[in-house]
Amino acid sequence: MSFQLDYFSLKGKNAIVTGARTGIGQAIAVGLAAVGAHVILIGHQDNMQDTQQQIEKLKGTYDTFFIDLSDVSSIRSKISPIIEKYQVDILVNNAGVIHRQPAAEHEFDQWQRVMDVNINAVFALSQLCGKSMIDNGGGKIINIASLLSFQGGINVPSYTASKHAVAGLTKALANEWASKNIQVNAIAPGYISTNNTEALRNDEQRSQSIIERIPAGRWGQGDDLVGAAVFLASKASDYVSGHTLVVDGGWMGR
Ligand code: NAP
């Protein structure tokens, strides 16, 4: 059968998006709803109104749950009822934290928090949803990686280690689950204007040097990630597996 536009449609699909309150996760959640998915918004702070209102405007549908993903040992008990209630077709592991502190002083409890949210929770959620996707005959997992899945960064050793791990886990899960019709891929955003990069944008020198290196000549916005997310969540990407798709205005090409 030849390709059809509705391969990009997510009508009838249930999609979990973690960290859906702000930034990239919010844009992806609203974007998936715009192409028909029922979105299960996972938040941390009890305040999802903005995302909910954006989805309502599109006449999309959602449910909301609040889970602290840094408490990895409690993820199973919090996520299992969601998986029992919904057939989860799409999991977007977006929630992430950054701690900026030079390696020599980097506090170990911060290292641990970054690892818990950015990689340990990603594995726990992927394992739980992946098992159910295997039983259901397939699914899509999209991990939000980073340019620091490829580069070392400055003063963010825990973040860099966690995001390299995200790229590695993406390939490892893809190798095991491609034959089960589960496509596991990642998106590596470039420099996107969100809370995560507020400190960088407030540092005039760093901000200027970053923009000078981006061929597109601007910081990215959350919406810049939505096309890649819809593609990787949809039938259009059924033969894409274990890939980390860079969406960075050209940064990595320099
Ligand atoms: P953001 O606005 O700070 O979003 C981070 C999200 O993670 C928030 O919605 C936050 O939820 C959630 N989160 C943090 N700690 C959590 C916890 N313990 N439990 C559950 N959720 C938690 O920043 P963002 O830039 O959109 O980040 C989204 C993802 O993109 C992250 O994985 C980040 O590493 C990645 N990324 C960002 C950039 C960039 O330039 N911005 C570049 C590459 C990769 P609450 O708000 O409810 O606390």
From TrEMBL:
Q: Does the keyword Oxidoreductase apply?
A: yes
Per UniProt, which keywords does this protein have?
Oxidoreductase
Name the source's superkingdom.
Bacteria
Enumerate the Gene Ontology biological process terms: bile acid metabolic process
This entry's Gene Ontology molecular function terms read: 2-deoxy-D-gluconate 3-dehydrogenase activity; NAD binding
Give one Pfam family: adh_short_C2
Q: Which PROSITE patterns match?
A: ADH_SHORT (PS00061)
| Record family assignment | Belongs to the short-chain dehydrogenases/reductases (SDR) family.
- This chain belongs to the protein called 2-deoxy-D-gluconate 3-dehydrogenase
Query: Gene symbol?
Result: kduD
